[in-house]
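JOB MANIFEST
job_type = single_chain_structure
chain_count = 1
residues = 713
[input]
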Amino acid sequence: MDRKQKTNIDLARGFESSLGSWIRRLPVNNFLVVLSSVVLLNGALRVSSNAQEIRATLAPLTVTASHAWVDGSTVSALDSDWGESGLEAFALQTVDQLLSEDPTFSLYRRQNALFAAPQTQGVSLRSIGATAAGRSLVLRDGIPQNDPFGGWVPWARYIPRSLQSMNIESGSQAASWGNLSAGGVIAINSATPELELHRVRLTVGSFDTIAADTQHTVTSGNHGFLVNVFAAKSDGSALIHERDRGPIDGTAEFKTRGVDLRHEYWIHDRLRLESALNYYEEERGNGTALTHYDTEAYDVSLRLLGIYSDREWSASVYYQDRSLESVFSSVNEDRTAEVAVLDQFDIPASGFGGNFIYVTNAWQRARLVAGLDVRHLDGETNEDVLIPNRRRIAGGEQTLAGAFVKLANPPEGLTPYELTLRVDHWSLRDGSRVERSNVSGSVSRNDAYRDRSGWEPSLSVSIARALSETMTLNLASGYTFRMPTINELYRPFRVGDDITEANSELQPEQFLNVEATLQWQPYEALRVESGVFHYWIEDAIANVRTTAPSGVFVPAGGSYNQRQNVESAHVLGWQTGIEYAFTDKFSLELNYLYTQAQFKDSSQQPELVGNEFPQIPTHKATLKLEYQYRDDLLLFGSAESVASQYDDPLNRRKLKGYVTGKLGVSFQATKRLRWIARVDNIADATVLTGQRSDGVRSVAPGRSFWLTAEIDW
């Protein structure tokens, strides 16, 4: 019995056999069946036509990137927030498309999550990452969403229209979360079942894409129920540049589907119980006949909230189950044939944990936020390396437990501030890697890695000072860390003919940062924010090119790399944002980010010193325009300009920059029906997402058209 079978709990198995099997039977090719199924479920949940709204006599505690939303606390000037109107405006399919309005946000590849492979969906706010592993924490209702095995995030499972709000908090003020908070924290907050709501949305678009989602909320007395079902399928776009394609290159088709179930129960006026069940599944091709990715995700959580006049608290527990299957191939030089080289037939992972958060306003001059949290992760890869024909099983366990305290005083004070102190204990256990021949059964490798543990502090301080009635200066500094993922520690991987080896001895990355931001608002219609930040990174993890050991086969034209700690690196940045409302109907938002991300010291590979981080552009700018032509007609557009960047840490493979944009219109046809039409990448720009060592270039989708119909009742 393998590790996964030993650690799975009966709850997860029961959940998989009931909800999971039902979802898998949903016919993705017939969305009418999906929608009608949910309507029937809504009818079953409707207990009374006279259902009352949920009692909410006091404002509920909202767990966000700051652990608890504090109405009077200082907030970094460069943080980004999206409310319900922002989440629904453009009828986008995934939240990463909205998050990209903030230039500090980027996935590892220049690709939105709707068309991206799961392993490339790690996010590094403020360009602080030198590999595809995510270096920013993503939360949904206060629960970590980063994959237990690899740290990436399945962004396609979060439908923007079904959420209540979303915000980004900068790393200098996110230290209360510890691990993964260096770049910042992205908080996704689910809609709450407080008012009765019924919504259906259908989208059709380029690449033979069709998507549907439906949301239903019913209430009765102190109970609220929310059901959200979504599904999508597409023939996908081409992944290889047209000049590099061969006969075997096709498109990356995909199918996604999922269900979110949520229940809220007000036990009494000051105590609320929340429960949630989530399921998500996706099937993705990778551009050739033999390659694909299949993902499944299950989540279950409970949260109890207490709300009083001068204090609030919440206690949460959760369990997460993930599985991934993928096949990689090697393609010949003229791309006329391929052969499967790696079959990752089972990559199971799980995570469970909980947290307790306490907030008090007992002091006149300050608010106290304190808490405890723990997360245990377990994962392994089961894969067949087909050349030579051998089986590999590798994985391990990781546990983090921490405690924090935060003090904040309200902005009406002379010097508003936030001070955070945190300490974490981490441990790595049961790491192993076994390889045996699929032909003879002989064992060629049997490694049992040493257990390790340690302590990591995190701290941050921020101060705001009003320089005048229209200008405010914010100063902040922080120190925190990132643990290497189970994937980085134990699982090697291959992209084309480029091989990257794991490293069980990786140390945590350490981040020290400072920032200064100036806010200027001369009048209500104009807001300008500009700031600089600097990160010093020790033991930065990078994929370092090295010599392959004896017995390891590297294809001609390929490369051999290993994940290694680089002694030091730094990231220097300048960020500016302007919001201007020309009239009450016409507004503009412009954001710009300059980043210099470089390796500073590397004893293992001196060639890295002075090189730029891979996949990090020096310049990035975004523009958004909205014009409310009539009460029922909204015109919108946006543009993004990204400078060139390198695809490898040796800075030998350069990806040229690009400018792209979108235009759209939202029309409220009736009280209940809204139409949204949109054109993405309107100039059909070529957006390079990668270049392999053999010169083959991958690309993001070109121009695409989208039409959405949304009905509320």
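[summary]
The chain has one domain: 3-712.
Residues 1-63, 68-75 have pLDDT under 50 and may be disordered.
exit_status = 0
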